[in-house]
Amino acid sequence: MLLLQPSDDIAWMAPYAYAIVLLGFAIVLFKIFEDWYANTYNKPLFRHYMVYKKLSKEQAAIIEMDFSFYKKLSEKHKKQFQHRVATFISEKKFVGRDGLTVTERMKVLIASAGCMLSFGRKNYEYGLIEFILLYPKEFYSAINDDYHKGEFNPREKALVLSWKDFEEGYKITDDNLNLGIHEFMHAMQLEARQSKDIDAVRFVKQFQNILIQLTDQEVKDKLDETRYFRAYAFTNQYEFMAVLAEYFIESPLDFKKHFPKLYSHTRKLLNFTFAGY
Questions:
Q1: Which residues touch 132 (CB under 8 Å, ≥6 apart)?
Q2: pLDDT of 263 above 60
Q3: Which of 1, 93, 117, 158 has the fewest CB neighbours in a 10 Å radius?
């Protein structure tokens, strides 16, 4: 029977220890390079890994028929989009309120709206949202003792939507009113303030560039002259960003024509390099 001495144990484990140290070192170097790349080129090095969940036939038919953004994507991006929608649906809890029955179509379309807005990001899952609460129409909110069409409640980790208004928002694709995009942007904004990942850092950088643009006298004069963005955008900087996202998604060419620099910063913030944006 062979008895190993302590020195024999150490010698036997040494190659594994070296491998672990080298792996850790490689991970640190990759992280440094990934952060440098994102900061230099305003986009993540990798925004999607080669893992593809699939939607059910029913879910895929809904997205093919009812979600116009999906139809503009390449086959490669369609696979990525389906994976993200399937992941979103599996990770969030959808709850109907005031007697509303949540259907598969509701889940798919709401998940698609969120995944569309975050499609250019590596971190696309909206970690601050656990629940999607759906009301048939406008609902009473205790937050400010008023009726809302939608809200993001970070304390409850809930995105709350009026289904009637959400549906109108995605069906009418050129009026720059999209409840889903508006509320998902609020969730993305708060996540960017709390997180330190590459998408959050990029978001904050481009958001600051947008705010700087708003101090430019020429831009301010043009905003006053054209009244291009609806008045609600100027409630505060967070509502401005949410409204900006609606205009960017629904009227990209018109937005770019009127305010090219604001458009450029929004495009970089979302890393939208597909579907003609």
A1: 92, 93, 94, 95, 107, 110, 158, 159, 161
A2: yes
A3: 1
Answer yes or no: are the C-beta atoms of 139 and 98 closer than 8 Å: yes
Report how far residue 203's alpha carbon sits from residue 113's, in angstroms, rounded to the nearest whole number. Answer: 19
Note whether residue 136 is domain-resident. Answer: yes
pLDDT score, position 44: 72
Predicted confidence (pLDDT) at residue 68 exceeds the cutoff of 50: yes
**Alpha helices, DSSP H only, in 42-102?**
57-66, 68-71, 75-91
What's the domain count of the chain?
1
238 within domain boundaries: no
Rounded to whole angstroms, the Cα distance separating 267 from 277 reads 8
CA geometry: angle 66, 250, 267, nearest 5 deg: 120
pLDDT-derived band at 105 (thresholds 50, 70, 90) equals very high
What is the rounded CA–CA span in Å between residue 219 and residue 265? 14
Residue 96 within a domain:
yes
d(CA 78, CA 67): 12
Residue 76 domain-assigned?
yes
Q: What is the mean pLDDT of the chain?
A: 88
What is the sign of the dihedral through the CA atoms of 206, 208, 212 and 214? positive
CATH, residue 84? 1.10.472.150
Range of the domain at 69: 57-172
Say if CB 77 and CB 276 are below 8 A apart. Answer: no
